[in-house]
Each structure stands twice: as structure tokens, then as C-alpha cells.
Amino acid sequence: MRVGLIINPASRRNRDGGFGRSVAGFDDLPRAEPRTVAELGEALAEFRRRGVRVVAVSGGDGTLREVLTALPGAYGDEPPDIALLPAGKTDLAARVLGRAGAGAAGLRRLVLAARGGTLTRVEWPVLDIAWRGVPERRVRGFLFGAAGFAAGTRIANSHIHRAGFHNATAVALSIAATAASTLFGPRRHALLEGEEMTIAADNAPGRRGRRFLTMATTLDRLVLDLTPFWGEGEKPIRWLDVPGRPPRLMAALLPALRGRPRPWMIDAGYASGRADRLAVAMANPFVVDGELFDPGPQGVLLSAGRRIGFVVP
């Protein structure tokens, strides 16, 4: 299986250009360092023309999101497998789905395993977020979040990552900082009130109200092995919905993060479940794999009908 390499030169571990220089000697390895969405699409289209069936991605969760979003335009209904060479700030997907390794050494192991036919492969459903009323506009990734989740992402980007904290440490600090801002910060009342949203899972009627936090993912766990979801079934999307002014928030935090709600939490409006589709209408930006997006006037529809193969040597 032929391997092609996408390098995000802006990812944390690639900014000095060292990785790009270190792989310059890999013979006959299709590779690209796209800096725009258009360049990424062109690179993937060239990979397909050259018979690439494993796309190695050197970047973070945001880089993977852009690759997954661009794949259908380049490969149609025959997507290649993905191999992750984590180089970002959180690298959630690599922690859950497996990593090929770090740097040139990881890439070398991947190429040798691909040539020898010894790759280990797992298929996973990808979260597809489409703007309602604008079906051609969509983004594909793994983790969707809104309301308090977006606030936590802003805190992480503006303070925690800039201070040099990344990966699991950054996630732990983001949770702590968001909780502190919610309870003691100058915007605590607005954060606790949450944001007006309407959410509908599959064919259930839409539930309208203020939300303190909303999340959805196709992954079975998050960083720090957090599993803040519950509910039965095999549907691919796991979702969590916490009402505005959440009752006994601090008492609910640990059970929610573990996916083991207390009975009183269900009665108080803490909700979670599994779904094939999730329709979300809101006025404020939401997050997909670390980046904020405007929801548009009609909101978005989350689905997970496409599965992608992920490989490790």
C-alpha cells in the first residue's frame, strides 16, 4: 500500500521545519505541506492519481479535521486509510485511534509496514457536520462542542496553550479554568445561564432551552480517558446535554465526566444518549476539533454515516 504524507507546517511540533527536512530523503514518498484548503485538496487529488492508499497526517486534530473534510472531494467514495503522526496541541484522535509514531522514525515504521502488508487497521465513524440550508457547506471531524465547551476552548487557546501547556495537561487545566470562571469569574452569571439552543436527536421532537454545555462525538473516550456520555445502544454519535444554570454543578462534575450520572442528575435535566443524527440550532459559534465555526441562521445537522480506516504499523 503506497503511503503519502501531509505535513501541517503550522502544527506545534512542525513549526521549526525540522520534520519536513528530516523526511526529504524518503525516496518516492508523495508529500505536501499545504497552507490553504485549496492546496490541501490539490495535494490529495495528486495522491489519488499516484495511487496513495494510506495518507499519513503530521499535525493535530485540526489538521486531521481538514484532511477528513477534503477527502471526499479528492477520493470520492473510495477514501484511503489514515495514519496519524501527532504533532498538535491535544492530538485526541491519535490517543484514541492509535498513532503511527513520532517524527521521521514513526514515518519510517509506517512505510515499511505498508510495504510489508503488516499494518493494523481499525474503522471508525467520522462526525459529519452540515449547515442546514447550505448542504454543500460541511466539516468532518470527531468532537463537536457548544456553549460552555466553546468558552473552555477560548480559554485554552488564549491562555493555556500560549503558556506552553499541551495535551492532557492542557485539558485538565482547561476544565479547571472553565470551572473557576463559571463559579468565580466576572462572566460567571452569563456562563451559568448558558446559551439558547434547540437540540433534536434522530426523530425526537426538538428540545429548546438554555444550555450550559453541549457535546457530541463518535469517539468512545476523550483525553484523560474521560467518558462524559451515557445511554444504551450502538448508534455512532454520543452526545451530552447540560441545561443552563445546572443544578449542583460541582457535585455533578465528576459523575458526568465518568459517564456515571447520579439519579438526581437525570431528574435535574442532565441528559446523554446515542444517536444517528443530531440537529442543533444556536446563535453562537460552536467548536469542531479545536476551531470555532459560525452556525449560520438554521444551525447544523450532525451525522456519522461515513467510516474511515485508521492504520498503525
Detailed description of the structure:
The chain has 313 residues and is α+β, with helices and mostly antiparallel strands. The protein has helices at residues 18-22, 37-49, 61-75, 92-97, 103-116, 148-160, 167-184, 188-193, 249-257, 263-267; strands spanning 2-7, 31-32, 52-59, 81-86, 120-125, 127-131, 134-141, 143-147, 195-201, 207-217, 237-243, 271-275, 277-282, 286-288, 291-293, 300-303, 307-312. The strands form three sheets. Strands 6, 7, 8, 9, 10, 11, 12, 13, 14, 15 and 16 form an eleven-stranded antiparallel β-sheet that branches. Strand 14 and strand 15 (291-293) form a beta hairpin. Helix 2 (37-49) crosses helix 3 (61-75) and helix 6 (148-160) crosses helix 7 (167-184). The longest helix is centred in the middle third of the chain and has 18 residues, at 167-184. It is elongated and about 60 Å long. The two termini are 12 Å apart. The model is unreliable at 168-177 (pLDDT under 50).
